[in-house]
Amino acid sequence: MRELTSKALERARELGAHYADVRIIDERRESIRVKNGNVDNLTSAASRGMGVRVLYDGAWGFASSSQVNADEAGALAGRAVAIARASARVKRHRDVELAPVAPVEAKWKTSYRVDPFAVKLEDRIELLLEANRLTRQEPGVRMASASMSCFREGKVLATTDGSYIEQERTEVGAGIEATASSGQEFQRRSYPSSFGGDYACAGYEFITGLELAAHAERVAKEAVALLSAEQCPAGVKDLVLESSQLALQIHESCGHPIELDRVLGQEASFAGTSFLTPDKLGSFQYGSGSVNITADATIPGALGSFGYDDDAVAGQRIPIVDRGKFVNYLTSRETAGELGLTANGTNRADGFNRIPIVRMTNINLEPGDWTLDQIIKDTKDGVLMQTNKSWSIDDKRLNFQFGTEAAYEIKDGSLGKLLKNPTYTGITPQFWGSCDAVAGPAEWHVWGLPNCGKGEPGQTAHVGHGAAPARFRQVKVGVGKW
Amino acid sequence: MVGKDRALGVIEQALRLSPGDQTEVSLMVTDSSLTRFSSNYIHQNVAERDAQLAVKVILGKKIGVATTNSLDDAAIAKTVQDAAGIARLQRENADFRTLPGPRPLLELSCFMPATAAFTPNDRADAAAIIVNAAKAGGFEAAGSVSTTVREMAVGNSLGVRAYNPVTGAGVNTVVMSASSSGYAHGNARDVTTLDFSAIARRAVDKCARSVKSETVEPGEYEVILEPAAAASVLSYVAMLGFSALAAQEGRSFLAGKLGEKVFGENITVWDDGLDPRGMPIPFDGEGQPKRKLMLVENGVAQNLVYDSFTAHKEGKESTGHASPGRFGFGPVPGNLFFAPGQASVEEMIKATKRGILVTRFHYTNPLHPLRVVVTGMTRDGTFLVEDGRIKSAVKNLRFTDSMIRTLNHVDMIGEWSLEGSMGFGGMVPALKISKFAFSGVTEF
Description:
Radius of gyration of chain A: 23 Å
Distance between the termini of chain B: 46 Å
Order of helices and strands of chain B: HEEEHHHEEEHEEHHEEEHEHEEEEHEEE
Strand content of chain A: 35-45%
Mean pLDDT of chain A: 97
Largest sheet of chain A: 8 strands, mixed
Structural class of chain A: alpha+beta
Strand order of the largest sheet of chain B: 3-2-1-4-5-6
Number of domains of chain A: 2
Number of helices of chain B: 10
Shape of chain A: globular
Strand content of chain B: 35-45%
Oligomer: heterodimer
Low-confidence stretches of chain B: none
């Protein structure tokens, strides 16, 4: 492999590039989805390719190909330099400058106990079919599905700065869903979370540990019960979020606005910019004193963990919000260089055919010292919302609105009626400023999200969010025209 | 490009190797480039050559699928073997009857040499037109210029053989000041038909006019949706309603409602993969012919879109809407046309007592599929209209409303324009709607 990477880097240097990197990536994925007793999708996908990124005349160029050989390595370097030359035709007053990083030679891989690809396909299918069969036993369930995905990525990264890094990730995820419909009503419940369940860098032991079949009956009954539940009332209530919904709240209202490329306007025309402008760094009160948020790429087994990013910077743990105060961005070598900061290892590409851009790692709300039971007992007039159904946030990451699959009324410290179509909305710093209770480590979980979209052409990142149930005071719930 | 002979050769090679009772092979070869600019300079500039070979092997009623991005002999053979191995381990799918047979396909000219020949320097020059226009106005531009050459080939063991090269070009930009922004975009098969100067002018003009001076309270308003915003409404209605799979699974608001009035009488929508005003392509992901299919006529639901799987389940024939390279996703109406009217946006403004003019929506997401309740934000030009004229730009608003309700309150429809070209193909006009629910407001 070094022969190929050297060929690309040497050719880029010969053509005048002052920085270049090359990634060679092999990917393998096996996906299974069961719907109403049928194996609706059973796919094995393989992909291999190479991408070369260069800085020439202070501007970027990138070229990629699914052919991996020495000739193509040289050709890609040439193509990338030609593209960078074109970039330099519309340049700003100063060149791209990369924050310094020491060269590294390393190997890194995720660990697992049971190789998911070694588990017989028929056993994997059977696990999903059984969970699906149990889900469908509940009368009123119109459609039940169960899905599982196993993914492995082998990546070599070499840079003209002298880094050469080999990494291997093995990821798994699974989940079940039940949907019920009647007239104009349509309701869904999922386990362990929506949109495919929960994901981790782990082996098949993570899948069996989810115990999908054990949760099938509850999920099915809740979907049917939601059909006749009361509509979530409109009003201002204390809001308690269970941890998987809180994970998405962190994702949209903290994870994205702290991406420094977004802050600098590099995503402006697509997904927008950020309210967390550089003048706020180190001084802005993002949330209450209960809010401590970290970015941590070092959590073993978490989906957003890795050894090194695609700038060859080590994955690391950094504070983002410290007792409510905003203290750090996620940075790449390029964006850190803009503000004179240190690159903190978050520049990641989605495969060989994409450039690295600033991505979340595991962005976590650190645990507090409450329990969910204590939070509920301490709440007089509130709503507990569970499992994400819908998400939306404005292009500076301020006004958000989420919908969840289910909610329960909280009255005088006790859970009450089941509520359907729950929604809540708010403005990011006001919302986090109203956080006054976070549950402790026993209820803290790192949720894996395999579908974070960003960039043009589109890229999908695999990220994680550690969260425990938390309470937010006086939040607007039950929004919109139904 | 690999060319027709090589593409169909790969298809034949995979079909010959398959042990399946039936086999379908599809190939997509892509050569795409995208130049991205922000803060008035090019900050990302990428090119990609990739392929996807997908092999579906069917043994009885057992279906296995495998994909690869390598087209060498060993990879083709392994992919066929993998698909066959998966099929052997599969459960029978009772709903599967057969792959589709061959049907006559039209010859369409979807490949534009000028688009294929568009160089990195050409893209940079196009970006420069927009950047320079923004600079001249004292603004900053962000956006992208892209071109794609894609060869699609499909074959199956029943005799389907289809090959078509297509080109696509796109441009979008947001031009910004400290307190305003404006958006414009364009999509075409032929890059030479994109007027980058006109697109720049539209975005700069909108930015100059959208400096915000007012906040309006959330509530129900008259609303004028410019084409990019109207496209969001149509997209959700199509995504959540027109797929036969969605109807069969009980998650489409059109299930059991064909022949019934679902929208206002002034609403007519069709899908036409052959119309040159969209992004034409002669066949779908199963090699079945595209044609014009009326979906809603004068407010009455007429048809759903089918692939062969969903069609056979109801004893019907595919309408040519199989998703290319996506399995279990179901049929998709990818070339939507919303019948135009004759009103201009200016006439819509004149007819508005108190309402909101929306340039486009951001981060829209469905809350309830059967009621097609969707939420999202306005962005890049939101204006208060009072007594027949634009009074001021306003801070961006969040809407949460049913798109079915929305399409039952359309009282004026615009003409088609470049702004109405939908990214994946199709045309949508501006709409004036008498009732539209805004549920929140943001700080900018």
